[in-house]
Every structure is written in C-alpha cells, then in structure tokens.
Amino acid sequence: MIQLEEVSKRFKRQVVLDRVSLDVLEGATTVILGPSGVGKTVLLKIMAGLIKPDQGRVFYDGRRIGFGRFADNRQMTGGLGYVFQGGALLDSLTVAENVGLVLEETTRLGRDEVQRRTAEALTRVGMAEHADLYPRALSGGMTRLVAIARALVADPRYLFFDEPTTGLDPAVSGRICTMIRGLRDQGKRAQVVVTHDLAAACLLADHTYMLRGAKLVRADNARKEDYEPAGA
Amino acid sequence: MVSIITAPIDYLAFLVRCLSGSPDPRRTWPRFLAQLWSHGVGALPVIVITSAFIGLTTAVQTSYQLMGVVPKYFVGMGVGRLVLIELAPVLTGFIVAGRSASAMAAELGAMRVSEQIDALEVMGVDPYRYLCLPRILASSIGLPVLVVVTEVVAVFTALVISSAMLRIPAQVFTYGVTHFFMLRDFTGGIVKAGLFGLLIGSSGCYFGFNVQGGAAGVGRATTQAVVLSAVLILSVDFVIALIFFNT
Q1: CA-nearest residue of chain A to B112?
Q2: Vertex A160: Cα angle to A154 and A164 (nearest 5)
Q3: Are the beta carbons of A60 and A75 closer than 8 angstroms?
C-alpha cells in the first residue's frame, strides 16, 4: 500500500498541493481526476519519489521513501512501473531496447531471457512487430503502448499512469483503458491513474479522487462540471 | 532552487554522487567506450587541425622573441616546454569543453525535459551511473590522450616551420626540444588534462541533469556548462602550476 501523509507542494507563490493525504490500495485502480495544470502530475511524481514535497511524507508498505540526489528507494518501490504522459522513451534506444532496459540494468537475467520477456511484453501491447524501430518513428499512441510495455516488463507491484488516454484517438484510447482494466484484474497490483478524461476515469476507477484548489477530495460520482470551469 | 552560494556545494554533491556507488563495470564499460568514441575519437580532426596551428604560431612567436638574443636551439626548448606545460592541456581543454561539455549538457538536458531521466529513476536504473559516469570517465581519460596528440602535432609543425621558414635547422630545433625536456613538464600537463577532463565531463552532465524550463533551459545549460568548464580549467591550471612548477 502507498500512503501519502499531509503532502504539500508549492511552486513560487502557487500552492499546488495543500496537505494532501491518500491511501493507494493494492488490487485496485485509484484515479485522480482534475483539469489540466492543477497538479495531478506533481502529485504522481511525489508519490514516485521524483519530486520532493515541501511538507509531508510518502510511505510504501509502511516504509518512508526519501527524496533528492542520494535517496535510493528501489528497495521500497520494488521496481515501479510508470507510464509518462509523453512516453519518455529513451530516444537513443530501439523499442525493444527501451522495454528490455529495466531487465538489463536491474536484474541478472541472461540476454535470452531478457529478449524473451521483452518480446512477451511487446506482444501484450501489440507492438511486437515494431521492436526494431526508434521512438522518433512512432506515433503518439504507439509511444504510449511501448511505454506501457516498458512499465509492465518487470512485473511491478505498483503501476502509475499519467494521462494515459490524452491526445489519442478513441480506438487507441479504448484499447489502453481495456488494458489497464485487465491489469487490475490480474493480481494484487496497485494502480494509480491521473487524468482529466472523465470517461476514462469512470471506466477505470475503483476509487476516484479529485484534485481541486490544491486539495484532494473523494469523488466517486464525479461529473465533468465538477472540475471544469463552465464553458470549458 | 540552487543559489549562487549553494551551487558549488550542489555541484560537488553531484560529482560525488556520480563517482560513488558501484560502477558495475559489466554495464558501464560498453557505454564508456561509446562515449570515449564520441568525445575522444570524434574530437581528433579538430584537435589535429588546431594543434597544427598552435605549433606554427608558437614557433613563429618564440623565434620572434628569442632570435638574436639567445642561441637558436632555445626556440626548440621554448616551443617544447610551452606546448607540454601550458598550451596543449589548456587549449585542448578549451576545445573539448566547447565541443563535449555543450553536447553533454544539451543531450542530458533534452532527456531531462522529456522525462527520460525521470523514467530511468522510477525504473530503478541509476541515472548517475547510466548517463553521467560513462561521460565523466570518457572525458577524464580521453582528454589526456588528446593532449598527447596535440603535443606531438604541435611540436612537429613547429619543427617544420622552423626549418622551412625561420632558418633554424631541424637538428638544432630537435636538440632544443630534447635536451631541455623534463619529465615533470609532461606529467604535469597530463595530470592537468585528466583534471580538466573530469571538470568538463562533470560540468556538462551537471548542467544537463539539472535543466529546468524546456528548450530555453537546455540552451542556458549548454552555455553554463562551457563557461564553467573554461573558468574551472583556468583556475585548476593555476593550482597545478603552483603544485608542479613552483620553484
């Protein structure tokens, strides 16, 4: 379980998160809704140990994670899977190398086993035939699918999705939603999705929260007008 | 936010972070070789061209200052020692700083902006070991080798122009170079080069790693990396001069 305890963050004068607390449960998908620019990605990055909060603490299974240059949270986060909004694939590596990187770098698996698992992950997202392409040759949807394969390949306990459906056509968007739901059903993995896409949120969420005015509130029956300004 | 007061501490902490921990040679070695190729071998053409002109200019100016005052072999001595002690390490350092520190800052900066470094961190891949260590090692080891190339090419072109245009026979010039050669001149220059390489690699990685603010931030980082490298090269040059060459 991931626990956020009274987490606050401000950038210059703007308060982005104000004493936010959250429990992310295993075997469920927690969705954090909110309009663009409200601080959802900041919250997710704090949860992943990438951004240091001004106040508050983050725990993985009761163990507090650290922040900053010398922090090493690998033992606690246990190989976090994180699907970034833009994919964040390493542009000097091919699709297959991107997906296999985490296995190459953090395990002692042999090359054959790494290749087998990489191929398996790419097949799972339907990108096996694009294994030798470089990220610059991929469309936005394909990049997102490869990013999901990369996040899944090491079979992480925690999976974070940052706007997984934003900017994608309905077909790919639907495919990704189905995939995320399928992953939730497979095991005890804890999934966190941040999105401003209400339809995707309704489809995916076991628990829904809304980030509004730097506060996180429970919003299991959220409506579009609850978080978007009138006329938006 | 890193201020001008905390920046040196932050830079040192970054350097310590890059060089500490397990280097994991099996994984670092191939990336080190790739960086050595890019920042060492890739720099050879420009190094050869510039060092040829360093040799030519130094020979002409040394001759201008010494001819008629001291025996002709002093031109060989002057060129040789000047190149070994000062010109080769410092000018090669500047060229590599302009070429490699900026490239490292731009490359890592673009990776930071596009969240690739964040992606490495969350995957449990140490980005300091994966990205910075091979670059810093490559510049620290590559620069001394490039300095030796500069020394050889510069002294050779100085020899050629001295015998062809300055009326100094090749034997006389060579006598000046070899008779007054001191191992300390050479080792001092190489030690300098190694330190300059460390500073160039680390400043390029530091500014690239800490980019903020998109494309404009990447541009700022490349400029800062080159400026800091140049300032550190001259500062460390002075310290090494005090240690190695202070009579």
Answers
A1: A88
A2: 110
A3: no
- Nearest chain B Cα to A150, which residue? B123
CA distance A71 to A73: 6
**Closest-CA residue to A37 (of A230, A231, A229):** A229
Amino acid identity for residue B50 in this structure: T
**ipTM of this complex prediction, to 2 decimal places:** 0.91
Between chain A and chain B, the number of residue pairs with CB atoms below 8 A apart is 61
Q: Which tens digit of pLDDT belongs to each residue from B118-136?
A: 999 999 899 999 999 999 9
What pTM does this model have?
Answer: 0.89
Say yes or no for a CB contact (<8 Å) between A69 and B27: no
- Which among A95, A90, A113 is positioned nearest to A103, based on CA atoms? A113
Q: Which of A154, A182, A149, A155 is nearest to A29 (CA)?
A: A182
Identity of the residue in B120, B122, B125 whose CB atom sits nearest the CB atom of A48: B122
In angstroms, the CA A103 to CA A107 distance is 5
Choose among A69, A102, A160: nearest Cβ to B124: A102
Interchain proximity B124–A77, CB inside 8 Å: yes
Q: Is the dihedral of CA B241, B191, B108, B212 positive or negative?
A: negative
pLDDT digits (tens, 9 = 90+) for A177-231: 988 888 887 778 899 999 988 888 888 888 999 998 899 988 876 666 666 654 4
Alpha-carbon gap, residue A6 to A219, rounded angstroms: 19
Q: Identify all chain A residues contacting B124, using CB atoms and an 8 Å cutoff.
A: 74, 77, 79-80, 102, 105-106
Say if the Cβ atoms of B130 and A105 lie within 8 Å: yes
What order do you get walking across the sheet with A190-195 strand by strand? A81-83, A158-162, A190-195, A29-33, A207-212, A215-218
Report the alpha-carbon distance of residue B85 to residue B106 in Å, rounded. 31
Distance from CA of B220 to the nearest CA of A (A): 21
CA dihedral in degrees (A116, A117, A121, A123; nearest 10)? 20
- Kindly list the residues from chain B whose CB atom is less than 8 angstroms away from the CB atom of residue A102: 123-125
Q: Give the pairing type, strands A207-212 and A215-218.
A: antiparallel
- Closest in A79, A90, A154 to B116, CB measured: A90
**Number of other residues whose CB lies within 10 A of the CB of residue B122:** 26
